[in-house]
Amino acid sequence: MDTTRRIFVGSAIVAAVAQLTGCGGGGDSGVSPAPSPAPAPSPAPTPAPSPAPIIDAVTLRMDGLARNTVWPIASPLALRTLLPLQMDYDSVRGKLLAAALDNNNMPQLLCLLPSDLSTVWALSLPSHPTALTVAVDGSRAYVGLLNGQIVQVDLATRTVAASFAISEGEGTSYFPLSLAIRPGAVDTVAISTGYVDTANLVKFHRLGIWQNGLPWPQILEVGPSLNNPAGAVRFSDASTLITLNTESSDNAVLKVLVGDRTLTALFPGVEGRGFSQSLDMLGTEILLPAGLRIDPVQLKTTRWVDGIGGSFLALPDLGELCEVQLRRTNAIGGFELRVVTTGIARQEQIRRLRFDLPTLQPTDGRSPDLVNWQALGRGRVAVHLYERVTGRTFLLVLDVESVAPLTAQSAPVTQGASQGMQLTALSHAMSGLAYDAEGNRLIASVAPSAGPTGCALVVIDPASGAIEARYLLSSPPGSVFVSSTGRVAYVCLPQERALQQVRLGSSPGLGWKIGALWDSVLDVAISPTDHETVAVTIASQRVLYLYTGGARVTAIGENYPDIRYVSSVAFTGANSLVVADSYTTNQDLQHYSITSGTITETGRDKLPAAFLFSFGRYFDGLIYTYREWATTDTAQAGGWILPPETISSLQQIGYVSAPAYDSVALSSKVSGAAVLSNPNGGSLSFDRLAPRAVSPLGGDLVGTRRLVVQDSGFASILNTAFRTVIAGTNRWATLCTPPEAADATLYIVTDS
To answer: Which of 176, 303, 460, 505 could lock onto 442 through a cystine, CB 3.0 to 4.6 A?
Structure first.
């Protein structure tokens, strides 16, 4: 499910206009066609008589308590599209303004109490609302209507102060798509219009400013001319208007200078994720729901805010960001809202709200769509849900501050074992594991099946198994890589074809993120001298990327005829790389140098044995290569430990007599020790190996001790240990999973 609001702005309203006006698609919409665009203002609407329109009662069960904080909005199902609820917050009076259809399909502007969504007053509107904005001083509200009109409402008297039309007729019906009141001038409003098909099928938007109901002389056509359909607009100050492209990612954000009745668009804009409905302010910066923060003065991206894959908004009263994600929990109206609040100067707090809404029936297996949201001051968030199957929409208010942060998940289980070994087991559905030698801590990625604490990177104390920190991620994570200094970790996000940096040092949190690669990330090498520089290979094993600080430096193998096969990668120095090929039978090591932002191949070395070697792992100056099946020369599974600078001295692992090993951890170039793990028929065995000769490169590694762990989780011989890491002196950790199971168990072994 896509939890952002990208599809519910331009295209949905355009489709609604097409249905109402008979343009672009035909067919019976089930609604009488709207009249032609009005060339002149209509008479001012009058307030609706008291009492307010009757609204169906819906009981929301949230965290086990019944709360009447849901307001169902009448279905726009007859239009076969969604007319979004428009809402804004009157911070002066502490009220939520909502413009929508009531349960009788009558357009209304309502003033609601955030505490229980009861109606304070209602005002009838002459047409479907398409946009709404409230002045900072609480004096005025502007409502855009589908018939091309703008209604100005005096919030003190609850009456219509003025109305004016922006449509021009002649076969083209403009309607307001987004509104923004100019700071210090409540009589001046910027209006971005939607489009419909004209007679010659040309589609375009318009952006203009109206003052006292009259347009400024300059109207920007933001279709072909600006290449930026301004689906959302916001003043960052009185002379700067920011527009957001809600339909594509090209020129997602554009800056328009507002002069003396003039508008000047500045190019180029900021490219990035568009498809959002609103622009928010986070201090002096622009915040997009997708997590992009922009300096409106320089019009440059300051950083990405990444989280659980929901949608961001600012909570000004708390000095925080809030991210909301909606997930379905059962088939009969059970849903879960995960809320993450991130303080400007502190780590995130994870909150979860489980609620049941029996009127929602997601028979197609999807959750309701999270369409719109609005911060309501002091930790309250209004959320607009749309259920595709029934066509009904709902307004829900969450009190973020009233929900306690989630506590750590189940405690680790420490159990004794024979042979002087202590075993700690953690069942957390983990999918990746690494060890930070600098900080003596395990870094693991947690799969979504772990529940509300899933989709995260966690820091684990290897001595106790306690989780010390958690960082939520935007999608299910995979492999984890840690820098030699332990200050940063990198985690693969396969579904996004992305790589996420996580800072583990003095200012912990999510760092930069790269995505939209050709394929999911396969292997990552972190520079030994600069943890901001990484080399990346992808699952197709065709491209080698180099990134610094989240910005792409260069890549090789992207374009024909430069065809190469690269799988595992390692830095052998500040400006040198070694890359392995496990895709073909070339059996070579490729050597590269990095000079002035370019990667140059400096040579290749053939491996002496005929096997494909997968995932070579670089550790302390050596590369361990691992093959998963036996070959005729050794009659058992095996691999090589070798120095990447030269392969003249090869060291083959000498195995003790045992089945093929599932996972291997290389310990040290000095000691040459290694640990091999293998689950087998109700037990998990570990073999510790050491070099036969004094020099780690002088001979085979041989087994020195076997440790066997008896555990009911290993009743099947098909259990797999898919990742083992050395975790300090006499300690290692292994991730194991039973066949066809998503939940992996982390075993931490301490050997006396």
So the answer is: 460
Q: How far out from the chain centre does Cα 116 lie?
A: 31
Tell me the one-letter amino acid at 146: L
Give the residue-averaged pLDDT of 160-180. 76
Q: How many angstroms from the chain centroid is the CA of residue 236?
A: 26
Q: Residue 18: helix, strand or coil by DSSP?
A: helix
Bridge partners of 27, per DSSP, are none
Is 170 contained in some domain? no
pTM for the model stands at: 0.57
Q: In what order do the strands lie in the sheet with 521-526?
A: 521-526, 533-538, 544-548, 551-556
The DSSP H or E segment spanning 577 is strand 576-580
* The one-letter amino acid at 139: S
Run of H or E residues at 16: helix 10-21
**Would the pLDDT of 256 be above 50?**
yes
- The one-letter code for the residue type at 654 is G
178 burial (CB, 10 Å; 0-12 / 13-18 / 19+) is buried
The answer to whether position 235 is within a domain reads no
- 748 part of a folded domain: yes
Map 712-744 to HEC letters. Answer: HHHCCCCCEEEEEEECCCCEEEEEEECCCCCCC
How far is residue 447 CA from its own chain's centroid? Answer: 15
Q: What share of the chain is helix, strand, coil (3-state, %, to 5)?
A: 5, 50, 45
Whether 443 contacts 437, CB under 8 Å = no
Give the separation between CA 517 and CA 495, rounded to whole angstroms: 11
DSSP code at position 116: T
pLDDT digits (tens, 9 = 90+) for 32-82: 333 333 334 444 444 443 333 333 444 444 444 444 455 555 444 333 334
Neighbouring-strand partners of residue 434: 443
Cα–Cα distances in angstroms (integers) from residue 104 to residues 108, 112, 129, 158, in the given order: 10, 18, 15, 22
State the pairing for strand pair 185-193/311-315. Answer: unpaired
- Gap between the Cα atoms of 99 and 84, Å rounded: 9
Give the residue from 682, 681, 678 showing the smallest Cα distance to 706. Answer: 678
d(CA 317, CA 42): 39
The answer to whether the beta carbons of residues 263 and 240 sit under 8 Å apart is no
Contact 175, 151 (CB under 8 A): no
Long-range contacts of 319-324 (CB under 8 A, 24+ apart): 319/343, 319/344, 319/345, 320/344, 321/282, 321/287, 322/375, 322/381, 322/400, 324/3, 324/370, 324/373, 324/381, 324/383, 324/398
Query: CA 159 to CA 109: how far, in whole Å?
Result: 11
DSSP H or E segment with residue 618: strand 614-619
Indicate whether 579 belongs to any domain: no
Alpha-carbon distance of 727 to 441, in angstroms, equals 7
Domain stops at, among 375, 406, 437? 406
Determine the distance from the C-alpha atom of residue 356 to the mean position of all C-alpha atoms in its chain, rounded to a whole number. 25
Domain count along the chain: 2
Question: Which pLDDT score is estimated for 495?
Answer: 82
* CA–CA dist 375, 750 (Å, integer): 49
Number of H helices, E strands in the chain: 1, 59
Buried b (16+ CB within 10 A) or exposed e, 145-162: bbbbbbbbbebeeeebbb
Burial 280-302 (b: 16+ CB within 10 A, else e): bebeebbbbbbbbbbebeebebe
Last residue of a domain, one of 370, 386, 406: 406
The residues that bridge with 89 in the sheet, in sequence order, are: 96
Triad 27, 28, 29: Cα angle to 5°: 110
Q: What is the pLDDT of residues 126-145, one digit of tens each?
A: 988 989 999 999 999 999 99
3-class SS of residue 386: strand
Strand partners, 350: 340
How many C-beta atoms surround the C-beta of residue 40 within 10 A? 7
Mind giving me the DSSP string for 234-276? EEEETTEEEEEESS-STT-EEEEEE-SS-EEEEEEEE-S----
